[in-house]
Amino acid sequence: MSWTTVLDVVGALLLLLGALLCLAGAIGLMRFPDTLSRLHAATKPQTLGLILVLTGLAATLRTWSAVTTLVMLAATQFFTSPVTAHLVGRAAYHNGNVDESTLEVDELSDALARAEDDEPT
Amino acid sequence: MTVVAALALVLLGSAAALVLVRLFRGPSNLDRIVAAEILMVIVIAGVATESALQRTATNLPLLLVLGLVGFVGGVAVTRFMSRDTDDGRTTGSARTARSTPTAAVIDRGTAAITDTADTVEAAGSPDAPHPDPRAEGGPP
Question: Using CA atoms, how far apart are residues B135 and B53, in angstroms rounded to an integer?
């Protein structure tokens, strides 16, 4: 069993795991009741699933140019997906799409109330 | 490798079908944005599986472009959705409607008819340097 065979098997396994995580995220997106909980389900394939798929691809290709491009893609995704998630959650909160009885902690409404008190009218 | 890639593509295809159902049903546009983000990730994973199957690196710039386009599109549409919350004049939201500047002016305007001193108290800012002239001017 040579080194390349091991890398091929590892790459195939990682690709399969990433696809499985994408399916799990899609099922969560389908079944969860709320925008925020759907966001919670959606961010799993965005980071971990994509990392698994890209690591599998890197283990299959095994060239440095491919690895650097894939690392750059993974870093881009890591930096950009929290931005989108934050914006979507904030917009959901401001549009009143959030069921407040499901929230354990609601720090944003406290902060908004404080900002309202401090606001010079 | 072929079997594994086919299995991964089947998983990704069913995931994309579920996400498309969510994209169709909504209920709000924010859910559609989330679904579109996931759909972009699924497309990226599909292209990556394809290029792992072919053992070619020609698709890698395509992956990078897909990721960036998904991010920019999602942020743009989300900003469009929450556009009217920036200046604090949200309409149609029970949570923020009570705190809009317009509502505060109306409250103070009606209170100024009876007593100006109580007005500043009721507005919750006793140390306001320059009260609104419309509130001080009495009933319109």
Answer: 72
What is the number of structural domains in chain A?
A: 1
Minimum-distance CB partner of A18 among B21, B45, B123: B45
Please state whether the peptide bond connecting residue B27 to the residue before it is cis, i.e. omega within 30 degrees of 0. yes
Residue A29, CB half-sphere, CA atoms under 13 Å: how many?
35
Query: Average pLDDT of A32-48?
Result: 87
**pTM for the model:** 0.73
Q: Residue A106, SS3? A: coil
Instruction: Report the distance separating Cα A5 and Cα B80, nearest Å.
Output: 49
Which residue in the set B8, B71, B123 is minimally distant from A80, CB to CB?
Answer: B71
Residue that the structure tokens 């929450």 belong to: B82
Pick the residue of A8, A81, A94 with the most B CBs within 10 A to test the interface with B by mutation.
Answer: A94
- The identity of residue A26, as a single letter, is A
Domain limits for position A52: 3-118
* pLDDT tens, residue by residue, A71-82: 999 999 989 988
Residue of B nearest to A108 (CA): B95
Query: A57-77 b/e with 16+ CB inside 10 Å = b?
Result: bbbbbeeeebbebbeebbeeb
What are the tens digits of pLDDT across the range B23-72?
998 788 888 989 999 999 999 999 999 999 988 888 899 999 999 998 99
Residue B80 near residue A91, CB atoms below 8 Å: no
Q: Do A15 and B48 touch (CB under 8 A)?
A: yes
Alpha carbon distances (Å) from B106 to B87, B138, B140: 18, 12, 11
Mean pLDDT score, A81-110? 81
* Confidence check on the interface: ipTM exceeds 0.90, yes or no: no
